[in-house]
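Project standup — Tuesday

K.O.: blocked on the structure for the chain from last sprint. Re-posting the sequence here as requested.
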Amino acid sequence: MQGGQVAVEGPVLRLASVLTPSKPKFFPSLTKVVGTLGPNSRSVEVIEACLEAGMSVARFDFSWLDENYHQETLDNLRVAVKNVKRLCAVMLDTMGPALQVRNKSGNPIELMAGNQVTITPDVTREPSAEILPVNYLGLANAVIKGDTIFVGQYLFTGIETTSIWLEVLETRGKDILCLVKNSATLQGSIFTMHASQVHIDLPTLTDVDRQAISNWGSRNKVDFISLSYTRHVEDVRELRAFIKAQNLHETQIFAKVETVEGLRHFDDILEEADGIILSRGNLGIDLPPEKVFLFQKSAIHRCNMIGKPVIITRVVDSMTANLRPTRAEATDVANAVLDGADGILLGPETLRGMYPIEAIKTVGRICAEAEVVCNQSLQFKRVAKHVGEPMSHAESVASSAVHTATKVKAAMIVVFTSSGGAARLIAKYRPSVPVFAVVIPRLSTNSLKWTFTGSSQARQLLGVRGVYPILASPNVATSGGSSEESGLKLALDHGKTMGLLKPNDQVVVFQKIGDSSVVKIVVFQDQLHS
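H.V.: unblocked you, prediction finished:
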C-alpha cells in the first residue's frame, strides 16, 4: 500500500466543493456497477430500469435458485437489453464450497443470546432454535473450541438482527455445540454459514458448479464466471481447463477472494485470473475488522498496477430495506473508488432488496462524485513507475494517450480494438474521461463454420473502469481502410448523443497503423477534422 500521498486532488478538499450542488449527469459513472438479478429485479420492466440506472453487468448467483429460474431471468434481461439498446455483460457466480442451512418451512427462527444451539450434518432435521443442519459432514473435524461461526441470510454485516454469532463450545461426534452470542431472527429459505479462518475440505469447483457451467453457462455463452471461494491459483487453472472443455474459450474468470486462505495466495491468484472480486462479506468475518481496509487497499493497488479489473462487494447492505444508505456506507463506496476499484457489486441490495433501482442509482452517483476528486495524476505516476522503463511500444502509446487526454483536456478517448486489450491498457492508466472502445469484429472459423467474434469482447469491457464498448457492425470489419473512419464516426456520434461532446471539443484517438499504434487528436465539429 502506498503512503504519504492522498488519493484526492487538493483544491476539492475545500468546504466550498462539498456545498456545491452535484451537476446532473447524463452519462454513467466511470466505475461500473454489477447488479445481482433475483426475485425483486427479474422482470423486464425492472431490468430495463436497472440498465438505465447504470447497471453494466448482470450477476446470476447459483448458490440460490435453479437453472430454470435463472434462464427465465436471463431471457428477460435479453428483452430489456434490446428495448433500452444497451449492452450488458452476464456473470455466472458459482456456489463453491459454501456451507448452507436449508430452512424448508421458511418459518423464522429466533435465537437468544446465551442459549446453546447444535450444528449437525444431518440435513433431514428441521432447523430450529436448538438445531441447525448444515450441508457438510466434516465441519466438526475442522473446528476447535473457541472458533467463531456465523449464520445468516446476509451473513454478519453489522445488521445483527438477521445474523447470529456462534462460539464453538465442544464437538460431539459429527455435531458441534455452540453458544449463541447475540440475539437474532433468521429469516428466509437458505442461511449461509461461515466458520472464521477454518479450512473447509471441499473442492472450490464443485459438481454443482460444473453442472451449472456445462449446462446454463455453455448454452448462454456467459461473459464472466465468478469463482467463489478461490483459495489457490490451482482453483483458477482448474476452472480454466474446464470451461475450455465446454467450448467457453472467450469466457473470462473473476477469482472471488473471500477467505484468509485466498488472501495468502493472492498474488498467484491475481496472476492467473482475468479479474478479482473482493468478497467483503466473508472477508469481513475471516479478518479482524481493523484489517479489512488494509487488505482492500493493498489488493486493489496490486490489481491496478498490472491492469486487471477489481470489483468490491457489500457496500450498501442497509439498502436492502432502506431507500438511503448509511453515512458510513456512502463513505465506503467513495473510498473504494478513490482506492482504485473498477466496479461495485450489489448482491442482496438488488437480488431481494426493496429498492434495486435506487441502490444502483445511489451507488452510481456516489461513484461519479468520488471520480471528480480522484487524484488521476497520482494514479498515473504509480502505474508508470511500476511498469518501469523501457516500456513496450503498446504500453508507451497507451500511457501517452491518457497523458495527452489530460494535457489537452479531451472530452473522451476513442480506441479501436478487436480483443479488448488496447482498451484495457488505456484503462490501466486511469484516465479521467470515458474511453469509447470501438470493437471491430473478427472473422474466425470453428468446426468449418465462419463466424464474426466481437460481441463477447465488447461486453467484457463493461467490467473495466471507464471503458464503454461500441460493437461495430461486421461491415466495418471488412471495409478496409475506411473501417476506422466509420468506427470513429460511430464513437463520436455516440459521445454526442450521450451529451459528452460539444463543438470544438478535443478527442484523443488511439489506433493501429500497420504493426504500430499511434495517438492523434481530433477536434469534434459534427464532422471529422484532425
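K.O.: great, moving the ticket to review. The chain has a mean pLDDT of 90. The first helix runs from residue 15 to 19.
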